[in-house]
Fold each of these.
Amino acid sequence: MDFEAPIMPKRDIPNILITGTPGVGKTTTAKLLSEYVEGLKFVNTGELVNSEKLYKDWDDKFNVPIFDDDLVVDFLGKFFNF
Ligand SMILES: Nc1ncnc2c1ncn2[C@@H]1O[C@H](COP(=O)(O)OP(=O)(O)O)[C@@H](O)[C@H]1O
Ligand SMILES: [Mg+2]
């Protein structure tokens, strides 16, 4: 069976997604990483969802947007080659 490797854009650094419960140190760790690794950019997805309105629904109970993963991935993909 023929196998064709997918054509991937050249990338020098990885995309690192940090998730977890509030207060465990995600933002602190991510910012530090981006300061020490050249080329690595820090993106706060929660803030991005709000500023770029990457949501379609709203959670009235907690008064927060329910982010839309397609909108987020499409938006980030423009900047990070994926
Ligand atoms: N390794 C660590 N040791 C002790 N305190 C930390 C550490 N990392 C973060 N903190 C502190 O914990 C609190 C929450 O960190 P933060 O990075 O905002 O968490 P998150 O983004 O996961 O909600 C902040 O006051 C931060 O200074
Ligand atoms: Mg945080």
Note: The CA atoms of residues 44 and 69 lie 14 Å apart.
Amino acid sequence: MAMAAVVAPSSSSSSSSSHLRQALPLKSPPLSRNFHLPQSFRPRRLLASTTIRAVAVEQESRAQLGPNEYVDVFACPVCYEPLIRKGPSGFNLAAIYRSGFKCANCNKTYSSKDNYLDLTVTAGMKSYTEAMPMGTELFRSPLVSFLYERGWRQSFDRSGFPGPDEEFKMAQEYFKPAEGGLLVDVSCGSGLFSRKFAKSGTYSKVVALDFSENMLRQSYDFIKAEGTISDANLALVRADVSRLPFASGSVDAVHAGAALHCWPAPSNAISEICRVLRSGGIFVGTTFLRYTSSTPVIARPLRQQFLARYNYFIEEEIEDLCKSCGLTNYTMKVQRSFIMFSAQKP
Ligand SMILES: C[S@@+](CC[C@H](N)C(=O)[O-])C[C@H]1O[C@@H](n2cnc3c(N)ncnc32)[C@H](O)[C@@H]1O
């Protein structure tokens, strides 16, 4: 069933978190008459499909959402219908932690765990555990998550990564058309860039998203330690890049730092990124290249043999991936094995 996008109530609720975490009684979700699209759905950016959807939703607006219930930016990872949120308003860690989310279509509920909102398909499952490939599992380790910003990430500089400050500046240039919108930092790790995006004040909302529970816990600790960004427009979300919890065409910018080579199926991930981006939305990613045009021809077979299995690509493959998934205006900057690429949703 289609859901309306309804602006969050302006004042915070004083309800207790235990009350808010109760399953939401929303079998036939009632909808508000006051329809507004969320900030990231600003009119100049609307896709035709989004407009049609909003109209369809408006036609269903006979009933009303309950007190403190509204539709936020998150969608069900199973069916992609926008989730109904119940709880205090505000796009910040505390308010999201105290909110419950429900898909009226699947009747599934989602809530926060350890300060991040779990929007994986497996959230809440009791018996089933999904084993992911090495590139994903490695970063779920508490030790790797702890070490990540304490030396691991810094070691990327040896391969040509210009360092977080410069990478952030480069990404911000590409993201100019997305200013003021919703940015999702996919595979955020310990939140190195999410914190910079949130602190920049450039975006109305920043979602730090990763599959690793421990990376998200580490992100939370770093956010708390910095103090100043806890109340920024920032959310911590657990999700699989191949199943992004956002409605189609609802995201202005997607950043994926040093992540493409870690994803189980890069083509599924980039298709998914293309799905959630709105028309004109920007995708910026960085990764390690297997070799570049300046790598001596004699060294290539060796790099080919050892690095292909780690999903290290060559420049042309990344461009091919982006284009085949429907993205356009591909550009890139290369420095030794480092590549930053950008592409746009038509
Ligand atoms: C090398 S870290 C990059 C962290 C950060 N973006 C940066 O620029 O330093 C790669 C991240 O990809 C995440 N990742 C791996 N597989 C994933 C998946 N299927 N969905 C979402 N994130 C995934 C890992 O948990 C890890 O945090």
Note: Residues 17-111 form one domain.
